[in-house]
Amino acid sequence: MNTIRLVKDDLRPPGPPPEKRHVISVADLTRDDVERLLSTAQTFASSLDRSVKKLPTLKGYLVINLFYESSTRTSSSFELAAKRLSADTLNVKAAGSAVDKGESLKDTALTLGAYDPDVIVIRHPHIGAPQLVARVTDAHIVNAGDGKHQHPTQALLDLYTLNEEFGHLEGLHVAIVGDVLHSRVARSLLQAFELVGVRCTLVGPPALLPRGLGAEATSEIEAIRSADVVYVLRMQNERMQPGANFIPSLREYTARWGVTPERLRQGQKVMHPGPMNRGVEIDPRVADAPESLVTTEVRSGLVVRMAVLYDVLTGGPVGVEALTTAEVA
Amino acid sequence: MSDVLWQRELPGADLVIRGARVLDPVEQIDAELEVRIDGGTIVEVAEEVDANEHRVVHAEGLVLAPAFVDPHVHLRTPGREDEETVASGTAAAAAGGYCAILAMPNTDPVVDSAATLGALVETARHEAEIPVGFLAAITRGQRGEELTEMAELAESGAIAFSDDGRPVASAAMMRRALQYATITGRLLALHCEEPSLSHGGHVHEGRVAAELGFAGYPSVAESVMVERDLALAGYESGRIHILHLSATESVDALRRAKAAGIAASGEATPHHLVLTDEAVRSLDPNVKMNPPLRAEQDRLALLDALRDGTIEAVASDHAPHATHEKEVPFEAAPFGVTGLETAFAVLHTHLVRAGVLPLETLLERMSAGPARIYGLERPRIAAGAPANLVLLDLEAEWRVGEEPFRSRSSNSWLLGEKLTGAVRLTLAGGATVFEATAVPA
After folding, report:
1. Mean per-residue pLDDT for A251-266?
2. Which of B166, B209, B226, B366 could crosslink B68 through cysteines, CB 3.0-4.6 Å?
3. Which of B199, B210, B330 sits opposite A126 (nearest CB)?
């Protein structure tokens, strides 16, 4: 366990970071970055066992959550993560804002940028939206999901969950089942697994497995049995354009690829990024079984997002020197 | 063909060009010669010509070649004059070394009536810096439902017909268009895209799209339409020209069709000849175009076809867009990039200097090739020919965007790139239409 020295009250961590740090894509992270973030998250996790859960670490910082898509888990955990670290938070949702009046992303970003936020957490239906906000504001950008491209904090929290559950990452085998084509979670996970040495098998209907991804892939659901963990993706109905015919029907999908107790080994762990369609991609008996790590993932989300906010703002590894410190853990 | 190209009235140049390497691949000239131009007409090409009190351009170390013809330009007029006008687009073309350009009809309103075409021709007569021709739509409003009045449009000056920007989706409509177009003597220039396969796609379906999460626009969406249109053209004995080829399978189909005697031709753009879908990883909206950038094997197939003449023309597909329309996330951005001012330099830099395309071939595909396809008088360096000339400095290095574009738009995929090869002087329709300040006079 690393030791973290947290800055007290209004003293900010020393010195500006060498360059603007963003978390936009897993592709930008190194294995060292991942290990540092996971270990910072562990440190924060132990701090959350105390009766007073709030840390003064990021007091005075402003974190803006800019969400152009609906979200429960991600937006609530970013907000809570910022609050647990004493940062000010501002939540802006596209619905009901000037976006409804046709304001462009650039102009919205410029407007929010005028408040000098330290971090902008953004979720947007278009690939590349975080990069655009990074170009026109001075804030650190954290991508909370851009189109079908990336959702890096989801991948990090899943690595954290796996590590907590198994005690290691290298050598694990994960089967990802379902609509890989439309899944930013799957894309982020594939890159993250590659970084830390987790083997991955993609399983799903042929039209929902993207061509050219270069990963192990099959349409045979039996392939999930050999994995340590079965990672179930949501069937994203809202991404299924009418007449696209990726699959003939949800009924047939469930019959062929639904994750049921019969298709799992005894004790096989199951994950799901949420929200779940019970009875579609995941059998309710699987979702509620003790082998399900779904609520663990949500808890991991909080500490991992605390670690991400801390990391981009302090610009350095855990244990940064400070004048006044408080030891945690 | 003065009845299909229009230019504002400009005085014919009186000029002597000395010291240049005169290079006309079709006339088979490659020698240091002097050229005299009287009143816009080349009157003498010889080892030594009399200056005859004309201005003398000292062009030692430069190459004098037939000026370029761009068969595929979007002038955005009428409708989006904030993005380009006939004046600004032809000025950009002059700076790029062109002596003629052809404008696509996907404007607002679409050029689908003699009245709209007539207004454009009038504008060109007053504003066009270089000769410009106009294609008219194949179907009304480019909706793919009813044929335009092709005969009247041809009489009013349409050089050819195209629904560029979108395909003629119905095979039956394409067949009727091929049948009717024969009475006009004009070809059909085809944007080949099967919309039910490209539907929603922004990026070539391959590794990059899969990794980034873009909806894929597969090669086969182009090639099945190329195959369909070649088959229909063969059946109806029609003449077609395939716009902006991007995929190996399409090129192979065109090669086979030509060998079988079908009257078909093809063009490729500088961006498809230089970039691949790897460029999309930058998420820069200025590498978003239709058809999308494809894989390296496709790029190499285009290059092979350009070399062996299957693809006879380089087309810029100059597609200006307002800055605010491109300052959005990749998926929300419109398709298209500018190219008139960079086409020669980028192909010279990346293909000729890289040793994969002879300079002579590039010059032919940028000038005689497109002229032949559209039945235009071939720009040439010979006594008696109108002066359609470009003076090129093959060693000059410059950075794209450092000097402002003459185009009203700046959505170039080459912003900030260093290129080698620059246009020093352009003569179009006998007039001096562009002269770089660095030219020694």
Report:
1. 95
2. B366
3. B330
pLDDT given at position A126: 92
Same-domain check for residues A187 and A231: yes
Residues A165 and A119 in one domain: no
- Domains in chain B and their CATH numbers? 15-63+389-435 (2.30.40.10), 67-373 (3.20.20.140)
Contact A126 B211 (CB under 8 A): no
Residues A289 and A217 both lie in one domain: yes
Q: Are residues A107 and A163 in the same domain?
A: no
ipTM topping 0.85: no
Query: Which residues does chain B have with pLDDT short of 70?
Result: 1-2, 438-441
Two structure tokens written together for A76 = 């609530």
Q: Of the candidates A105, A132, A187, which has its C-beta nearest B211's C-beta? A: A187
* Nearest-angstrom CA–CA distance, B424 and B416: 20
Residue among B209, B73, B81, B195 at smallest CA distance from B132: B73
- A169 plus A242 within the same structural domain: yes
* A:B CB pairs within 8 Å: 65
A238-255 residue pLDDT tens: 656 667 788 888 889 999
Residue B50 a catalytic site member: no
Kindly name the residue from B112, B163, B229, B317 that is annotated as catalytic.
B317
The verdict on A35 and A105 lying in the same domain is yes
CATH of the domain at A102: 3.40.50.1370
- Residue A326, pLDDT above cutoff 50: no
Termini Cα distance of chain B: 33
Length of chain A: 329
Mean pLDDT, chain A, whole residue set: 87
Gap from B362 CA to chain A (nearest CA, Å): 34
Residues 6+ apart with CB under 8 A from B122: none
In this prediction, residue A318 has a pLDDT band, given cuts at 50, 70 and 90, of: very low
Question: H/E element holding B252?
Answer: helix B248-259
Domain extent for A220: 152-294
The string of pLDDT tens digits covering residues A89-128 is 999 988 777 776 778 899 999 999 999 999 999 999 999 8
Q: Best mutation site among B278, B331, B415 for testing chain A: the one with the most A CBs within 10 Å?
A: B331
| Lowest mean pLDDT across A8-12, A17-21, B437-441 | A8-12
In angstroms, rounded to a whole number, what is the distance separating the alpha carbons of residues A168 and A22? 27
- What are B386's two structure tokens? 């109108």
Looking at the fold, whether A184 and A304 belong to one and the same domain comes out as: no
Kindly state whether residues A95 and A215 are assigned to the same domain. Answer: no
Q: Do B210 and A211 touch (CB under 8 A)?
A: yes
Classified as helix, coil or strand, B404 is coil
Overall domain count for chain A: 2
d(CA B403, CA B416): 11
Looking at residue B390, its pLDDT comes to 98
Calpha distance B146→B173 (Å, rounded): 8
Residue A3 has pLDDT above 60, yes or no: no
Contact B114, B156 (CB under 8 A): yes
